[in-house]
């Protein structure tokens, strides 16, 4: 799960412990979150749009997907006039921040053959949420010494 550190950093997430992951406004990312995330799933907390993008921490999914209330708030930058409480378009999950890690940056991840098919490393990939395979997770945990 990608977050811009000036909006939500791993340090801020750790201070809050459990946070709502709201504001996802891409259908494919929404579908990954809504349809495949389960309570207890591991999360790679990824800092994006910053000087050194990469994995900055580990978290876990703490809730099932539920409607993102910001879609109904007209003053919110995430407002969607086509969404209604009866027919929400956007969902969120809660995550529990577990720990900060050393920064595992894109250059290091790209040198690892076992991660060559990882969606976040694909050219042009801009999704804020992408699935991670069990092998990719194990490789990353090994790189992080976990």
Provide structural commentary.
This protein is of the alpha+beta class and 146 residues long. It has a single domain, classed as ph1033 like fold (Roll). 22% of the residues lie in helices and 25% in strands. The protein is built from 4 helices and 6 strands. The chain has helices spanning 10-16, 27-36, 106-110, 134-143, and strands at 2-3, 18-21, 42-47, 54-61, 66-67, 91-105. Strands 1, 2, 3, 4, 5 and 6 form a 6-stranded mixed sheet that branches. A hairpin with a 6-residue loop joins β3 and β4.
Concise account of the structure shown:
This protein is an alpha+beta fold and 146 residues long. It has helices at 10-16, 27-36, 106-110, 134-143; strands at 2-3, 18-21, 42-47, 54-61, 66-67, 91-105.
Query: What kind of oligomer do you see?
Result: single chain
Gross morphology: globular
Number of helical elements: 4
What is the domain tally?
A: 1
Computed over alpha carbons, the radius of gyration is: 15 Å
Helix content: 10-25%
Strand-pairing-aware structural class: alpha+beta
Name given to the CATH architecture = Roll
β-strand percent reads 25-35%
The CATH homologous superfamily corresponds to ph1033 like domains
Main sheet record? 6 strands, mixed
Distance between the termini: 19 Å
| Spans where pLDDT lies below 50 across 5 or more residues | none
Mean pLDDT: 95
Q: Note the run of SSEs as H and E.
A: EHEHEEEEHH
Quantity of strands, as a count:
6
The CATH topology corresponds to ph1033 like fold
- CATH class label: Alpha Beta
């Amino acid at each position: 799960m990608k977050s811009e550190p000036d909006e939500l950093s791993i340090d801020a997430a750790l201070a809050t412990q459990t946070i709502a992951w709201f504001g996802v406004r891409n259908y494919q990312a929404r579908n990954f979150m809504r349809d495949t995330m389960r309570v207890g799933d591991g999360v790679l907390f990824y800092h994006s749009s910053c000087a050194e993008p990469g994995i900055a921490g580990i978290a876990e999914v703490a809730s099932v997907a539920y409607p993102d209330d910001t879609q109904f708030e007209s003053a919110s930058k995430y407002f969607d006039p086509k969404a209604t409480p009866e027919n929400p378009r956007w969902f969120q999950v809660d995550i529990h921040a577990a720990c900060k890690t050393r920064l595992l940056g894109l250059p290091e991840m790209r040198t690892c053959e076992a991660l060559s098919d990882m969606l976040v490393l694909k050219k042009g990939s801009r999704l804020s949420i992408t699935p991670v395979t069990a092998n990719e997770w194990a490789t990353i945990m090994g790189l992080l010494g976990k």
